[in-house]
Amino acid sequence: MLLNNVYIFIIILLLVIILSYLLSYIILSPINKLNSMLEKISLDTLDKRFFMRYCPIDEISILGNTFNKMLERIENLIDETIRYNMMQQKLESEKKDAEIIALQSQINPHFLYNTLDTITYMVMGNKTSEAVNMINSLSNLFRFGIGKQEIMVAIGEEIQYARTYAEIMSVRYSNNITFNWNVDKSILHYKTIKLILQPLIENSIYHGIKQKGGKGTINVSCIDNKDSILISVNDDGLGMCSNELTELKNNLVNKSSRSKIGLYNVFSRLCLHFGDRFVFDMESEYGVGTTVYINIPKIE
Questions:
Q1: Dihedral sign from CA coordinates of 274, 275, 278, 282
Q2: Which of 90, 146, 169, 245 sits at 20 to 30 Å (Cα–Cα) from 72?
Q3: Is the pTM of this model over 0.70?
Q4: Are strands 177-183 and 216-225 parallel, antiparallel or unpaired?
Q5: 46 — phi, psi (to 5°)?
């Protein structure tokens, strides 16, 4: 009888162990699965969901459903963030384009005033033929400057615009200004923001050669610089001392002065369009002249 009781006890004990194991497995399995999913959460696994065919404990099912809702909320927040960022980028891009166009339009009345002044001098001096040619050149310039609202143009177009402007100014100053052009033909098809050369040439004339007096030379260069394009405008005008040059550079960067409208305008538009992907630098020596350098990325 005692032996039978021992056998019964052993059987009961084994059954309890087996049932305990099964019960712990049933309870712990969904918890372990949920824990594993929590550890593996990433952007690549947000589409995974917690699912059990049978869960004996309601609290675990509730926890699983809450976990699934959390994943859905994270997905929605990421989608909303992406859409918001895309919208912000679009608005920023449109804002930059609007600011660039506004800055471009500032050049037109400024340049128009100077050119009409030139034509006035010609008419007053009975230089009718030259005045007519000047008006035709002015018409061509404004067909490019005002007729086109594009921010980017081919470098070839930009150079042609600058050449026409140079011809106008050369006539105004009775050919006392010599223009030399060093242009690499292989870069003519690349893009640049328009109206960057003419303001630099204008700056060389009014703040360099005119201030110095007498004849002057302006050298315009556009060359291939490996992954970028190097543009420079050099004059043998009055130039600046080192303190004046440093102050001008600081004013351009800090946008604290607009005394040299052309330089400020060009620098501002380069900043808006290229961000930190361009170089703008100046060298100057009093009594010798000034050189402005612009290095921009190649854009097809």
A1: positive
A2: 90
A3: no
A4: parallel
A5: -70, -20
